[in-house]
Amino acid sequence: MVGVPARNEATTIESVARAADAGLKDLGTAHNSMIVLADNGSTDGTPTRFLEAATRTRQLVIQSGGTGTGKGTNVLALMRAALEHGAAHLILLDADVRSGEAAWIARLGSAVDGDTPTLAVPTYRRNRYEANTTNHLASPLVAALFGAPLQQPIGGEFAMNRALLEQARHWPAPASASLYGIDIWLTTNALREGHRVVEVPLGVKLHNSPFPKILSLPQQVLDALFHVTLRLDRPRPAEMDMRMSRRSAVDTEARKQDPATVAKVVKAAAGYLATHHAVVSSMFPTVAGLRVAPWGHRILTQDWPHILADGVEALARGQFQPARDHLIALYINRVLSFWDEIADLTGAEIDALLDRQATETVKAVADRPITFTGVTQATGFDRGTWTAIS
């Protein structure tokens, strides 16, 4: 089964369906495969456009819900459908991708062959001003907490075999896993349980920029990551020596984000930090040594790993929501500082910088006596202290 989670992606859904169909045809499996669209409340005719692709592979549309749901609702519905239809593999494709290739199907599917529970995650090359949540939250924290130096643990194009699907049906899912927290929830649970996680190179990824969602998407990702982290006994630091020359995440494209959107984000982060200055400084002692920047704090590569470690310590002390929410404000400052930091760097130099950031995060977390009590948080999700500002 190839599953496509979607909401209002009418402009790209046909090409995604055709790429999936071509990939299944090349594998010789189109006759006993399915391409399934999981839609939650599209108002632009996405399901109709999907069916108009007229693929050789059987198509199916499932409605996963509407208001109050998100990407994760669709993915979880696709996982249930894969089990119900007896699928050997489930391959997930983002509905807004414009660079999808038929070859992705074979690469992802072959990576999860066999009876050992296996999750395949992608590696891409992307515009240097994208992948911010991946670069500064997901990748370093997964390395520091779950023992895997994955380049893009929330990439979108995933694959899993039936053995992993059977395991995943028993994983506790917080509400953020029904939103944009779904990818990190899948990756970290697989790692937490010791299942096989493999990286699959997919080349360049072109899709709609997620930056306009920077005031909501990273919070959902961090929420889901924190929920799974609390099920550990202590951090599991990754062995980073073998990865220092492997990252290849930055493409030659360097398209900056919309200035009006950036200005809105800067204002929101500045307002948040002004409101919560005292508690942020107390919870994140690293902040005291930072220089001032036009957007608030100038957080450089050498600073960010210690801020992340401050956040993990706060989580371990039981400060789930404040650690999550305050870290998001600091993360926005890190993104803006990073953009300034990489202005004159090559793609390879940026990759090396991100490798160094992940390596130093592993070390910063490992150097602290952090243990988790096993006490999990309520599984609901709300924007908490961000609600009044953004």
UniProtKB/TrEMBL annotation:
One of its GO terms (molecular function) is glycosyltransferase activity. Its EC number is 2.4.1.266. InterPro entries: Glyco_trans_2-like (IPR001173), Glycosyltransferase_2 (IPR050256), Nucleotide-diphossugar_trans (IPR029044). It catalyses: an NDP-alpha-D-glucose + (2R)-3-phosphoglycerate = (2R)-2-O-(alpha-D-glucopyranosyl)-3-phospho-glycerate + a ribonucleoside 5'-diphosphate + H(+); (2R)-3-phosphoglycerate + UDP-alpha-D-glucose = (2R)-2-O-(alpha-D-glucopyranosyl)-3-phospho-glycerate + UDP + H(+). Keywords: Glycosyltransferase, Magnesium, Transferase. It holds the Pfam family Glycos_transf_2. Signal peptide: none annotated. Its cofactor is Mn(2+); Mg(2+). Residues 2-137 form the Glycosyltransferase 2-like domain. Belongs to the glycosyltransferase 2 family. This is Glucosyl-3-phosphoglycerate synthase. It comes from Actinocrispum wychmicini.
